[in-house]
Design goal:
The chain has 268 residues and is mainly alpha-helical. 70% of the residues lie in helices and 0% in strands.
Length: 268
């Protein structure tokens, strides 16, 4: 542990030490990893925006595994002391930290639930949902995509009520974003939620309909591709309106939109 924290140590050696610690830590058991001797070190290791790229790339991929092997008290402190800072673009962390935090937060929610702590209440109280949802507007595409993928995990843990109350309004707002790249990320989030099951199919179809009518071809394509990926969870709902829209897109001015619309129309 001392090697990984040594400021004047060769970054490659520090990275190797950090990798061993982060890889081995989850295998040592909840009580050892959560102990007063180990947990403060792990928090310092992860929570240092000054880490070299070599160290950062070894530490961050293991954050979600780490959280899945902490006791519930340590999960709470890790969320407040570490993940919250990693989510803040103003803290100086590499963008990979925000992506790692986006992936780790649903795991944290799952562990809190297992430990008898309401993840919904905890996340809202500590403004973690706000920070997470902001990642859908992140300037880095990999961060936005990781955030979008995490929506389905949150849905699995927190259920339809959370998705309807928190996730869908956020995604709906993002579909009005001036940046078409952000709107594409929103289409990805919608697709991930649709894949989670048919519970939200009516609301999801309305959001896909917005994407299909977007002025930018790439957003229309993202909506068509997303629908094809999760159509089995959507086609039990009234699809007449969206079917009409898709069939009309077969004559779209964009070649790729026409191609995907034709593919989608065969599934209707």
């Amino acid at each position: 542990m001392a090697i990984a924290e040594q400021q004047d140590e060769d970054p490659r050696i520090k990275a190797s030490a950090a990798n061993v610690i982060m890889f081995a830590g989850p295998k040592l058991g909840k009580e050892y990893l959560s102990s007063d001797s180990v947990m403060p070190f792990v928090k310092r290791l992860v929570n240092d925006p000054g880490n070299s790229m070599e160290v950062t790339t070894k530490v961050l991929p293991h954050i979600d595994e780490l959280i899945g092997n902490l006791n519930v008290e340590s999960v709470q402190t890790f969320c407040k002391d570490v993940l919250m800072k990693m989510l803040d673009a103003n803290e100086g962390f590499d963008w990979r930290a925000r992506a790692a935090a986006a992936k780790a937060l649903p795991i944290a929610a799952k562990e809190l639930q297992k430990g008898g702590v309401s993840p919904d209440t905890f996340f809202e109280k500590n403004k973690l949902f706000d920070a997470f949802l902001e990642l859908l507007n992140d300037r880095v595409s990999d961060v936005r995509e990781t955030c979008a993928n995490s929506f389905s995990v949150f849905h699995d843990v927190l259920g339809v009520e959370w998705t309807t109350r928190i996730a869908l309004p956020c995604i709906t707002d993002n579909l009005k974003n001036m940046s078409y790249l952000r709107r594409i990320s929103s289409m990805k989030a919608i697709t991930c939620l649709a894949k989670a099951g048919p519970d939200l199919s009516s609301s999801i179809l309305k959001l896909f309909q917005i994407g299909l009518k977007d002025k930018v071809p790439n957003v229309r394509i993202a909506a068509l591709v997303g629908m094809m990926e999760c159509w089995k969870n959507l086609n039990q709902t009234d699809t007449e309106e969206i079917a009409t829209t898709v069939k009309g897109m077969v004559d779209d001015e964009d070649d790729e939109v026409r191609m995907f619309a034709l593919q989608m129309s065969t599934m209707l």
